[in-house]
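Methods: example folding runs. The two proteins below were folded one after another, and each record is reproduced exactly as written to the output file, sequence line first and C-alpha cell line second.
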Amino acid sequence: IAELRAAALERFGLIDLALVHRFGDLEPGDDIVLVAAAAEHRAAAFAACAWCIDELKRTVPIWKQEHGPDGAVWVEAAS
C-alpha cells in the first residue's frame, strides 16, 4: 500500500495522499478503505482516488475470513 501511495503521489502530482485499508474484525457494512487526496486541482485528486482504488483491488493481496452457518472460510479478494 505504501508503494501504491508513492506511485499515486508521483503519477498525479499530488500534494499528499492518505490510503488506508482496515483489518481485523469488521461487520458487514463497515467502512474498509479510505482514500483521501490533496491536489492543486480537484480533477487530479478525483482521478488519483479512482486509480488508487482500482490498483488496490488489482495489486494488493487482501484476503478475508467470512463466518457463516457452516463455519469460517478464507476468501481471496476479487480483482
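Second run, written to the same file directly after the first:
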Amino acid sequence: MIYNKENLEIVSKAIVDNLTPDLVAVKFRKRNSIETLFGHCYAASATLYKIFGSKNVHLWHGKDNEDIWHWWVVDKDGKIIDLTVNQYYKTNREPPYDNGKKAGLLGWGYKKKVEKLLERVEKVIDIK
C-alpha cells in the first residue's frame, strides 16, 4: 500500500477499530478491560509496519515508567506514529519516546497476534 497521509489515516483507523482483548497478553487483560489500548502497542505497531513496509516505517520500542515495553513506529520523515498513545495521556503519563530504540518484529505468540490483526484489517480495507 502506498504510504501517504490519507492511507495512514485509513489503515490506522482500521487497526484501532480491530483491537480486541484476545490480542492482549493474558497478564495484561485485566488492565486492558479498563484501559482499552493498554497491551495493544506491539500488535498495532507491527501491523502498521507490515502494511507500509520498512521503506516507509520502522518499529521502535522503549520501557516506560512502569518498566513495561511500549511500541510505536517512526516514519521515513521521522514522524512518530503511535496508535495506542492515548493509554499514556489518559493516565497523565508520557510515552517512553526519549529512551526508544529501533526494533524488529517479534516471533512466537506475538507473530500470531499480528497475523490475526492484519487479517481483520484486510477484511475492512484493500491493502494491496
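Comment on the second run: The beta strands are 57-63, 69-75, 80-81, 101-102.
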